[in-house]
Design brief:
The relative contact order is 0.32. Strands 2-3-1-4 form a 4-stranded antiparallel β-sheet, with helices on one face. It starts with a strand and ends with a strand. The chain has 67 residues and is an alpha+beta fold. It is 36% helix and 27% strand. The protein has a single domain, classed as Alpha-Beta Plaits, CATH 3.30.70.100.
């Protein structure tokens, strides 16, 4: 699944977003693309809404994308 994280601007942000996802779902594989503010999450156990909610709770504005 993919998300656009509107307020992710730098490597520090990318590390923070990755940490939130890994805390919510330690089995998830996270790939960050700062150039388009997207993250791809594979191999995890949680669904998209649960991950989006975890990101939102931590202050990240994540919107789901197809793919």
């Amino acid at each position: 699944m993919r998300f656009i994280v509107e307020n992710m601007h730098c490597e520090g942000c990318a590390k923070g977003v990755t940490a939130v996802v890994k805390q919510a779902d330690p089995s998830a594989q996270v790939e960050v693309r700062l150039e388009d503010k997207s993250i791809s999450i594979n191999g995890g156990r949680l669904g998209g809404e649960a991950l989006r909610s975890a990101l939102y709770t931590a202050g990240w504005k994540a919107a789901g994308m197809a793919g």
